[in-house]
Amino acid sequence: MSEVVRVLVVDDEALVRHALRAFIADDDRVVLVGEATDGSEVVEACKAASPDVVLMDIKMREVGGVEATKRVLDWNPHCRVVALTTFTTEWRALEVLRAGACGYLVKNSTPEQIIDAIVAAHAGDRVVSPEVQERFVRAAIEAGENQVAEAPALSDREREIIELIARGLSNAEIADALHYAEGTVKADIRHINHLWDVENRLQIVLRATALGIISL
Q1: Dist. CA 177–CA 154, nearest whole Å
Q2: Would you say 95 and 69 are in contact if contact means Cβ atoms under 8 Å apart?
Q3: Helix 182-196 crosses helix 201-211 at what angle (to 10 degrees)?
Q4: Residue 13's CB: how many other CB atoms inside 10 A?
Q5: Each residue of 173-195: b (16+ CB within 10 Å) or e?
Q6: Taking the model in full, what pTM does it have?
Q7: CATH fold of 5-128, please?
Q8: Residue 110 confidence class, pLDDT cut points 50, 70, 90
Q9: Sequence-distant (≥ 6) Cβ neighbours of residue 79 within 8 angstroms
Q10: Which of 79, 90, 96, 146 could in theory staple to 135 by disulfide, Cβ–Cβ 3.0 to 4.6 A?
Q11: Contact at 8 Å (CB) between 23 and 31?
Q12: Amino acid 125: pLDDT
């Protein structure tokens, strides 16, 4: 059985914490080990709970999510932080991603998307909500970034995987949609990363959009 991911929730809204508590309790891949109501509490909460992943709100009363993310990673560089917020602007996402977060979700994400993002973050992946991802892509296109002369050769399956990544599907959902083993999907994504000299899903989408392989 896969390792159960230990999760700490940081949010100043009681209703949000209650909902996340229910989402996490309903999935045996994750377990809630602690909560904090502000970024000022996060390091002490982490010391008490030893989470694998911190689900972090951005806007809080005393210490916001960007500073709190830095504090978590100063405490433990191996801990993973996933931002969960109402903001969809790309500059908000960049701010917390540059602080060290490995994911950025908006609060209208489904329970499945939130839990999948937690699990993916723990596995080392970077997860960004599709609507925020689209803003990144459009900003990059408008700035004239990530333009390349020609597309490296991809298999039909790799192209399908890229299209599904752009729609925000997890590895497990891609495997189910294409009727392949999840390990095969992961291997294909690693090959795309190597072929295009990129590191994560967001960079794959940026490159694929610049190449005209997908459109948003």
Answers
A1: 19
A2: no
A3: 60
A4: 12
A5: bbbeebebeeeebeebbeebeee
A6: 0.62
A7: Rossmann fold (3.40.50)
A8: confident
A9: 46, 51, 52, 53, 54, 72, 73
A10: 90
A11: no
A12: 83
Structure tokens at 66: 């960007």
Report the mean per-residue pLDDT for the chain. Answer: 83
3-state SS class at 80: strand
d(CA 14, CA 38): 11
Task: Tell me whether domains 5-128 and 136-211 share a fold.
Answer: yes
Six token digits for residue 179: 């009727």
Question: What tokens were used for 30?
Answer: 């994750």
- Crossing angle between the packed helical segments 111-122 and 14-25, to the nearest 10 degrees: 70
DSSP H or E stretch at residue 85: strand 80-85
Q: CATH number for 136-211: choose from 3.30.70.100, 3.30.450.20, 3.40.50.1370, 3.40.50.2300.
A: 3.40.50.2300
Q: Residue written as tokens 């408008």?
A: 142
CA distances to 49, 114, 124, 128, 134 from 131, rounded to whole Å, are 32, 14, 22, 8, 5
Q: Is residue 175 a contact partner of residue 186, using CB atoms and an 8 Å limit? A: no
Better-predicted residue by pLDDT, 160 or 149: 160
- Percent of the chain scoring above 90 in pLDDT: 37
Spatial separation of the C-alpha atoms in residues 70 and 64, rounded to whole Å: 10
Give Cα 65 to chain centroid, integer Å: 15
Tokens of 108: 């209208």
Return the minimum-mean-pLDDT range out of 67-76, 112-121, 151-160.
151-160
